[in-house]
Design a protein that fits this description.
Number of strands: 0
Distance between the termini: 69 Å
Number of helices: 7
Radius of gyration: 28 Å
Largest sheet: none
Length: 195
């Protein structure tokens, strides 16, 4: 794959994951993790994405750790993922419109097969992420402490880079300004020539 083609594929996939992640923040699905994955891909091309990667990674992993910190949260998350899969199956099977349905028949299970597959995919992905979070964080408090230490180190490096960029910018501005008194000498020379 050529460099240009690779860039287009990575950017397209990155933006799709960002959009899906933002949507999944409000809809069922692992929004922060998808958003992190999209920004991680975009960070290979854009400086703004690279700057936002560490805070997003920290929040996504912190959210994953918190989601498995108690038995009731794990149970609730597991039931939610099963619920998504079950609704996906209902959407795919597409039962007949019940007689009590108050609106037009076209509003009964809109989206059909595509919506059902998406719901099942979200439920399976949620279950996989629950298992991953359990294995990584449950009973391992040092994991979150390590992630927090990495985040603080990344923040420090980012702040150092920002300060370095500002220093270089200030140095360039200083180099572009005429030194004090230089303009006066040039004015004197111009004045003598015209006299």
């Amino acid at each position: 794959m050529t460099g240009a083609a690779k860039r287009v594929v990575l950017e397209t996939l990155g933006w799709l994951l960002v959009v899906a992640g933002v949507a999944a923040l409000f809809l069922p699905g692992p929004g922060l993790l998808m958003l992190f994955a999209g920004v991680a891909l975009l960070s290979q091309q854009y400086e703004w994405a690279e700057r936002r990667l560490a805070p997003l990674k920290y929040r996504a992993l912190k959210s994953a750790a918190e989601s498995v910190d108690s038995a009731w949260r794990v149970t609730f998350s597991g039931l939610l993922s099963l619920w998504l899969v079950a609704w996906g199956v209902v959407w795919i099977v597409g039962p007949a419109v019940p007689s009590w349905w108050p609106v037009s028949d076209t509003w009964w299970l809109p989206g059909g097969l595509v919506t059902g597959i998406t719901l099942i995919g979200s439920g399976v992905l949620a279950a996989v992420l629950i298992v991953w979070s359990l294995r990584r964080f449950r009973g391992h408090p040092s994991e979150m402490a390590q992630i927090e230490a990495e985040y603080r180190e990344q923040q420090r490096r980012t702040e150092d880079k920002r300060a370095e960029r500002e220093q270089h910018r200030d140095e360039r501005r200083q180099a572009q300004r005429p030194q004090a008194g230089q303009g006066d000498v040039q004015d004197d020379v111009q004045g003598r020539r015209s006299a």
